[in-house]
Specification:
alpha+beta; 4 strands; globular
Length: about 110
């Protein structure tokens, strides 16, 4: 996991890295993302299951946290249906908020007397 973000706002990319490189150093390939601050627990990790299967097949060893995420949300994950449902709920909640913001921006400000 390669850490991005700022203070108190972490964001991780799940990557294939040579073991001799630093954690945030050069990567071989990006395999997905993990955002721990997403409100839907099952929507936090987005993984490319085919490429993860390839790297595991050629001998890559995931970290402890990545192994849990791969088991849950990888190509043959145990929580794939829950993840799809969580992503759909998250998309619907974002769609619901967006039109309200547009209406407020389009409405003219009341004139001051």
């Amino acid at each position: 996991m390669k850490k991005f973000g700022r203070k108190h706002r972490p964001f991780f990319r799940i990557v294939a890295v040579d073991g001799r490189r630093p954690r945030d150093g050069r990567v071989l390939e990006e395999l997905g993302t993990y955002d721990p601050l997403v409100p839907e627990t099952d929507a936090r990790a987005l993984l490319n299951g085919d490429r993860i299967a390839y790297w595991l097949g050629v001998g890559a060893q995931p970290s402890d946290k990545c192994a849990v995420l791969i088991k849950k949300y990888g190509a043959n994950g145990t929580s794939l249906e829950a993840q799809k449902a969580a992503l759909e709920r998250l998309a619907q909640s974002r769609r619901r908020v967006a039109p309200v913001a547009k209406e407020e921006a389009a409405a003219p400000a009341p004139a001051a007397e």
